[in-house]
C-alpha cells in the first residue's frame, strides 16, 4: 500500500471505536484503537496510522490551539496546557535575501515547553490515560523528554526518559528534571536509546510516547492545519511549500497526513497541498540520501554528528510515512552544514526570531535550495522552526556576541564604549 494523495476514504472496520481505528500502512490490517497497547502491526510490524470515519473540513474547526482541530483528532479534548496557536512571523530580511515571493516562519518554539512536541503529547498522554497505563517513556534528543515530563506530570503519571549521554542541550535536560521525570543517560546515541525504550515498551514496562506512537502524530498534524489557516489569513492563499527540519521524520509524516485528510474530505484540492521539503544536517542525513538516490528504504546511519543535537538521528523511524509525503507533494530534501545552520540561526535572530540550531536548519535548507534553483523566486514558503532559542543556551551563546567585562563605574563603561 502506498500513502497517496488520491483522497480515498476507506469504510470503518468493525473494530472502529466511535469512528476511530488503527490501520497498518503496509498491509492494511485494522485494529481497535483503545483496546490494547499497540505501536506497530501485529501481522507485519508495519507502522500504524489512526483513521477516521469522518474527515474534517475547515468549517469544522473552532476554538483555539491544538483542540481547535478536535474534528481531526481522536478526542474532543486532551491533557492540555494551551499548546498550539503559535505565531506565523514575517521575516523581512530573510525574505529579501532569499528572494522568494512570500516567506513566513512558523515558530513552534512558542509552545508551553518550547517545542512542537507539546502538540503530540496533549493527544498521546490523553490516549495513555484512556489505556490506563501507569508509566510513560520515551527516548529523546531532548525536546520529547521535556514535553513528556511536563504532560506526564500534569496527568499525574510516572515518566521515564532515555537520553544520549552528553548530547542533549542543557535547557531540555533541565526541563525534564524539574518536571520530575526519571532521566536515564545512555552511553549511546538517540537511535540506541529508541531501541532500548522500544524493547521496554514491548515487554510492557512502559507506554511508549515517541513518534512511533501513531497518536502523537495526530497532535502534530495540527502544525499543518494551523499553517494553512494562518497563511491564508495573512496572504489570502495557501503556501506552495513548507520547509522543515527532519530527525525521526514525525512532522513530515504528520503534515502529510493532515493534508491527505483534507484532500479526502474535499476541503483541499490535491494541487493546493504544499510541497513538503525536508532538511537534515550533513552529519545525520539518511532521509536526504534516500530522496537523492530514489530509494524506498532509508539506510540506517550508525555514526551521526551535528551541532543541531535535536536532529542527531541516523534511523528515522517514520521514514515509510514521510518518504511518500515528500515525493507525492512534489517536495525534496537537502542536507546543510553546521556552519550553514548557525548562519541561519543568526539571520533568524536578526529578524527577531530566537530558535535552537535544529530549527534554523529549515532556513539554511531554503537558502541552499534557492541557490540551486530547486525553489523558485515566485514561491510562497513557510519555514518551520521547531524549538526555542533557550533550549540550547550554549549554542546560542557560541553563535552570538561575547559579553564584554567592564569596571563598575559609568566613566569606565563610557571609556570601554570609546565615547
Ligand atoms: N526540531 C527539533 C527542535 C526537534 O526536537 C526534533 C526532534 C526535530 C526537529 C525533528 O522532528 O523527528 O519529527 O523529524 N526531536 C526528537 C526529540 C527526536 O527527542 O526531541 P522529527
Attribute tags:
419 residues, alpha/beta, Rossmann fold, 2 domains, six-stranded mixed beta sheet, four-stranded parallel beta sheet, binds ligand F0G, Threonine synthase, threonine synthase activity, threonine biosynthesis
Structure description:
This protein is α/β, with parallel strands linked by helices and 419 residues long. It folds into 2 domains: 88-113 and 217-399, Rossmann fold; 117-216, Rossmann fold (3-Layer(aba) Sandwich), CATH 3.40.50.1100. It has helices at 92-98, 117-131, 143-155, 170-178, 190-202, 214-235, 250-265, 286-293, 319-328, 338-350, 357-371, 393-399, 410-417; strands at residues 20-24, 30-31, 48-52, 88-90, 102-107, 135-139, 158-164, 182-186, 207-208, 241-245, 275-281, 333-336, 380-385. Strands 4-5-13-10-11-12 form a 6-stranded mixed beta sheet, with helices on both faces. Strand 6 (135-139), helix 3 and strand 7 form a beta-alpha-beta unit. The mean pLDDT is 97. Residues 115, 117, 140-144, 211, 245-251, 310-311, 356, 358-359, 386-387 line the site of ligand F0G.
